## 1
Amino acid sequence: MSEQQNASVVGSKSFTAVAINCAAKAGEWIKTKLGNYASLDIKYSSHDLVTEVDKGSEKLIRSLVLTHFPTHSFLGEEGVEPGPEASVQALADVREAEYLWIVDPIDGTTNFVHGFPFFCVSIALAYKGEVIVGVVYDPMKDELFVAEKGKGAYVHGKRMQVSGEETLRGSLVATGFPADHHYALPMNLKGVAAIAPQVRNLRVAGSAALHMAYVAAGRLSGFWEIGLNSWDLAAGALLIAESGGVVTDTSGEPYHLGVRNVVASNGKLQDELIGALAKAGAIG
Ligand code: 2AM
Ligand code: CA
C-alpha cells in the first residue's frame, strides 16, 4: 500500500510530517515537565527509571500516529515489560508488520530525572522491517533531526554529513551504560578501558538516540554500546545511514531492527572501532 493509496490517512499527512509533528509535540510537552513531574518509578533496577512523563509522551505519540494511520503497528518502550527478554519478544511480535512505528518517548530518562539537559524523543517508521523515516528531537536545544530513506538527513533544515576523521586517534567517540548492570555494564566498561586511550576523547552523555544523531551530524566520530533496544536505535540508524555513515552490530553485520549491540561511525572508523572492541573482548 503506497502512502498515496492509504485511504485512512487523516488529512493525508505524509509519514514524515506525522513523525515530526509527534516528536515536536511530545518534546515540547516533556520540556514543560522538567523538574516538575509527580511520580518516579523504578522499572528494572534502581538504574532503570520511568516517570509519568515517559508514559504520557508515549501515549500522546501513539494516539497521534494511530489517528493518522490506524492500521499501522506500534512498538513503544513504555508498552513493554522491563528487561531484555521482554524487549526481544516485543520486537519479535511486531517485526513482520507492514508498517511499524518504533518509539522511545524519552531517550535519556535518567538525564531527564536529574535535570541534565541531554535527552530526546525518538520516532522511527519501518516498512517491512526496514526503517524508512527517522526523527530525533532534542527539546532543550530545539533540534530536530530528520531522515527519509533515500532522501538524506537534515538538522535545522540543513543536510547532515558525518565527520571526516580517518583514525580513532583524532576522533571523538561516545558510548553509554544501559540499566543492565549484570551483563551490559561490564561489557561496556571493558570497551571504555580499551577505547579511551585510543581516541581523542570519549563521551558518555546518556542518550543513545541523541548520540546517534550526533554521529549523523558530524559532532561525534563514532558511537558504540552493548545492550540497547530497537527504540533506542531505529531512528538514529537511518539518520546516520542517510548522512553517509555506517551502522552495524559489533560483529560488523549491517544494522537491522534486532541489533542490540551497536557500532556506528562516519564509516572510516568502523573497522578500527570494531577491531579494538573485539580485541578487548567487549563486543557482547
Ligand atoms: P532510556 O533513557 O530510554 O532508558 C544510556 O546508555 C542508554 O541506554 C539510553 O539511551 C537509555 O535509554 C538506554 N537504556 C537504559 N536502560 C536500558 C535498558 N534497560 N535496556 C536498554 N536500553 C536502556
Ligand atoms: Ca526511553
## 2
Amino acid sequence: MCINVAVLLSGNGSNLKAIIDKGIKVSFVASNNPKALGLKIAKNANIPLYSWKNVSQLEKEVLKLIIDYNVKLLVLAGYMRLLSKNFVNSLPSKFIVNVHPSLLPKYKGMNAIKQALDDNAQYTGVTIHYVDEGMDSGSIIKQSIIKINDNDTEDTLKDRLQEIEHRLYSDTIKSILIKN
Ligand code: GRF
C-alpha cells in the first residue's frame, strides 16, 4: 500500500510492528521517549525515526514532517501524551487515529485494563477511534469485545487484547486509507 501514514509512540511498538507487517507504508516514526523500544522496530525496518522529549517541540516538528512526507493519516500507537488542541486543530478532521484497550467510553486514560479488572467488568475490548483534543474522546471507528475470565490478570488480559489490537488496528487503518 503506497499511501503514507506516520506513527507516534512512547513504548514497545508492538502495534507499529503489526502495521509494518501488514504492508502499510510508514513514512516516519516519532516519539517523546528516546528509549522507546518502538524506535528500534522503526530502525530495523529502515523507517526514519525522530524523538523529542519536549512535547510541544515534538508537536511542532511533527506538523512539519507531516507536510514534508505527504502523510495522509497520523497513527497513535501507544503514544502516552495528550495532543494539544492547537496540534489537533492544525490537521484536517479524521486525520489522527488511536487504539485503546477498553470499550470506550468506558475506562478512558491510563491503566484501562486495570480499571476494567478493578470494576469486576465481565467484558472489555479494544476501541479504534479518531482523536480530538480530549482524552480518548474522539468518534469511534471500530470495537471488538472479549469476555474477562475469572482467572484473568492484567498480564493475561493485556496479551489477549493486544492480539486483537494488532489485527484490528492494521485492518482499520487499511480500510481508512482505501476509502480516502
Ligand atoms: C496498546 O495497548 C494500546 O491500546 C495503548 O498503548 C498500548 C501500546 O502498545 N494505546 P504497543 O507499544 O503498541 O505495544
